[in-house]
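Subject: Interface between my chains keeps coming out wrong

I've been trying for a while to get a sensible model of this assembly. When I model each chain on its own everything looks fine, but I need the whole thing in one frame so I can look at the contacts. Pasting all components below, labels as-is. Any help appreciated, I'm running out of ideas.
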Amino acid sequence: MTGGGGGGSALLEVSELTVHHGQLRALSDVSLSVGAGEVQAIIGANGAGKTTLLRAICGLKAPTSGFVRFDGADLAALRTERRVAAGIVMVPEGRRLFPSLTVQENLQVGAAYARKGPWTIDRVYELFPWMPERRRQLAAQLSGGEQQAVAIGRALVANPRLLLLDELSLGLAPVIVARIYDTLPELLASGVTILLVEQDVSQALRVASRVHCLLEGRTTLAGAPADLTAAGIESAYFGLSSAAAPGAAGPAGAAGGAGETQ
Amino acid sequence: MSWVNAIIQGILLGGLYALFACGLSLLFGVMKVINLAHGDLAILAGYLAVGVVAVTHLPAVWSFIVVVPLFAALGYLAQRTLIQASLSRGVLTTLLVTFGLSIVIENALQQFFSANSRSLSIGSLVSDSLHLGSISIAYLDLVIFAVAVVVLLGLQYFLSSSRPGRLIRAVADDREAAQLAGADYRHIFGIAASIAFATVALAGIAYGMYTSIDPTSGTTALLLLFAFEAVVIGGLGSLWGTLVGGILLGVVQQLGAQVGSSDQVLAGQLLFLVILVIRPQGITSRRTA
Amino acid sequence: MSSRAQSAPSPSPAPAPPAAAAPGPVRVTRSRRSAILPAIGAVVIIAVLAYLPYAVHEGTTSLLVNFFILLILASMWNLLAGYAGLVSVGQQAFIGLGSYSVLIVGLHRVSPFLGLPAAAVACGAIGLVVWWLLSRLRSGYFAIATWVIASIANLVIIRFPSLGGGTGEPLSGMPTGNPTLLNAEIYWASLAVAVIVLVGLYAVLRGRLGLVLTAMRDDETGARSIGARVTRAQLLVFVIAAGGCGAAGALELLSQPFVQPTAAFSVQWTAEMIFACLIGGIGTIEGPILGTIVFFALQQWLANYGTWYFIVLGIVAIGVAIWAPRGLWGLISERLNIRLFPVGYVLWPVSGAPAGPDGSPPGPPALHQLLRRLGRRS
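Reply #2:
Try treating it as a single job with all components included. I did that and got this:
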C-alpha cells in the first residue's frame, strides 16, 4: 500500500518498512511520504504500530527491513541524536518531560543541541503565554495539558524541519486538546512539517492534509480527508471487510479468525 | 569532653566519607551503576599518588595535579568501554564486571606494590593540630573536611546551574527523552563517570594522607560500604544529602567508638540498617524510595 | 493488547493465522531424549565418589571436600542470581554463621556433625530475618546491603570471647578416634550435602517453584502479571540459599577445624562463588558444576603464580560477563543441545519431530504450562 502521490521531492520517505519487537511483527511493509510544509496524520487503534513507526523514523527502533529517507538521504546509519541535528524531532507519547527539571530547564535541554532557526525559548513563551510565570516549577508538578505544551516547546526550540507528534491528545480533556492543536498553524507558518499520530480520528481529520491508517502493522488506508468517507475510515480503522468503500482497502479475511490466543 | 571530641571527629570524618560517597552517588544516580570497585579505585589513586611522589620527589600535595585528571580521563574511558557494554546487558552484568574489576585492581596493586602498606606523608600537616581547650583537631582533618564540603557543594552547583550539569540530570531522568532532544547519552554518561572518578581519586589520595593504605584496603577498610551507607542515609539524588549522610555516619561511628573500640564500625552499620527499615529513601530526600 | 479505542462495536480483528498448520494434538515430555542415561551416569559417579576414601590419598579427598563446598556455594548463588534475580555479595554472612553454629554445637559437647543440619536450619532462619530487612530494596541497594549484613555478622561474632573473639577458635567436640576415618566421614558428609543440594535443586526447579523462577528470570513483570507469586518465590530462594551457605560453612569448619572470623566472613567467598557461577553459566543447574570444576582446575594449574591468578580470573570474569553471559555450559549446551538436568518442557506433535521455531526448547509452551498449573491451584 503506498501513501499516495506526495510530489517529487518528499521531505520524508518511508518505504517498505518492517519492524519487529522480538518475534512480534509490529510493522509490515509500511510506506508513506510526507511533503515539506504538510501535516500528515497517522491514525489507528492501540497496537496498530503508529508509535513504532514514529520511533523507527526518529531512530529509537531499528527496522528489520525497509528504508527511511530524509531529504533524500538514508537515515539508517544515523543515531537518534544525529537525526535531531538533521532536523527530525519527536514529541514522544506521554510527554516524557524530565521530571526533576523545571519548565525552563526542560526547554534549555531541548535547545542544547538546537539547529539555527526561528524558534527560541522566548518565542515558545510567546506561544504559550501562561508558561513564563511557571518557568521555575518542576515539570512533574504541571498538569497534563501544560506538560504537553512544554513538551512541544522543548521539541520546537531544537528548530526541527520535521516534527513528529505522538498522541498529543492522550489523557487530556478535549478542550485542552483543541487549544493545543490551535497552535499548529503557527508551527506550520514557521516552516515546520508535521507528522502526527492521533487516536482521535476527528481531530486528525480536522488538521491533516493527508491521513494514513494503520491496522496491525499494515497500511489500510491513505488519502486526503476530502477523499475519504466515514465508512471507509471506520472499516480501515477496525479491519472490517465492508463492501464498496471508496478509498478503503481492508485486509482480506480479517474478520474474527479462530486461532490461539494468549 | 570526650563526647564533644567524638562528635567533632565524627563530623570531620564524615567529610571524608562524603567525598568517597559522591562519586558513588553520581554513578548510581545517573547511570544506575553500583560500582563495587569504588573503594579499590580510591586506593588505586592513593597508590598512584605514592608513586608520583616517589618518582618526582615533589610534596605529596602535587600528586593531586597528576592523579586527579588522570582518573577523570580513566573514568570517561571506562564508561565508554566497560561500563557501557555492561549497562546494555543488565544490572547483574554491571555488578559482576565491577566486582571483577575490584579483584583485578586489588591483586594488581599487590603484584606491583607488594602487600606492605604505604602512606602519603604530608609533612607538618599530619602532626599539627588546632587546640581549643581540651579538644584537639588535626589540621589535616580540617583541610580534608573543607575540601569535601567545597567539592560536594561545588558539584551540586555544577549539576543545578550549568549546561552539562543540566544534561546530566536530564539523561539521568530519562535517557531516551534526552536522546530525542539531541543528546548523546553515552557521552553524557562519560562526563558523569569522569567526574565521579575524579572525586574518587581525590578521596583516595586524601585517605592515603589520613591513614596508611594497603592493596586490600578497598575492601577491608569497608570504604565501599561506608560510601554506600553515606549515600543511603543521606538520601539519593542530592549531593547535599550525601554530605549529611557522611557526617551522620561519621558521628555515629565516633560515638560508637566511645562505647567500645570495636563498636565503631558496628554502630555505623546499625544506623544504616535502621534507616533502611524506617526511611529507606534517606534523611534529606523528599521522595519515597 | 488490542483494545478498541473508539465506540463502535466490532468483532475481534484477529490477524489471519500464518500459513503454517494450526496446532494439532501434542505430547509433552520433560526432556528431549531419554533422561535415563544421565541418571544412571549420575548414580555411577556418586558411587565412585563415595568409594574414594578407600582408594585414594587423604590429600585428594581433602581437595574434593573443598570442591564440594564451592559447588554448594556456587549452586546457591546461581539459585539466587540466576533464577530469583537476587544479586547478593554478602552470602559470606551465612557461611560464617554456619561455621560458628558448628563451633557452638561442639562447645556444648555434642558431636559437631550434628551441627551440620543445625547450621542449615539456623542460617535459614536468620535468612528469613535478613530478607525481611532487605526485601524492599532494588538490586544495587540489595547487593551492597547484603555485604553490610555480612559485615555486621562479623562484628557481632567477634564480641563473644567464648567464640574466640577476633582471633578465632579451634573446633572442639570432635569424636576422638581414627583420624583417617574421621576425614572419611567429613568427606562423606560433604558429598552427601552436595548431592542433596543438587538433587534438591533439580526437584525444585522441575516443580511449580521452578516454573515461577524461570518465568521470573525471563521477565519479572510478566511473571507477576500472570499471577506468579514472585516475592514469595524470592523469599523461599533466599532462605534456601541462606541455609545452603550455612551448610557449606559448617562443612568448612568440619574440614578445617579452626574458625577465624575475618576468613569466615570474608568477601573472598563471594568472589569464588561468583566466579564459579559466571564461568560455568548462570541460570542452569549444570553451570555451577562446570564452573566449579574449571575454577579448581585453574587453581591447581596457576597455584604458583600467586596474585596473577586472581588478576587473570578477574579479567576472565569481566570478559565472560560481557561477552559470554551464559558461561561455558551455556555455550556447550547450545552447541550440543543437551541438558543433563532436564527441567523444561518439550512439545512433540504426535506425528514427529519436536516443535519450536528452531528446534530448541520452547518458550511459549512453558508459559502455557505455567498458566494452566497456576490456574488450577489458585
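Reply #3:
Confirming on my end. The longest helix of chain C spans residues 179-206.
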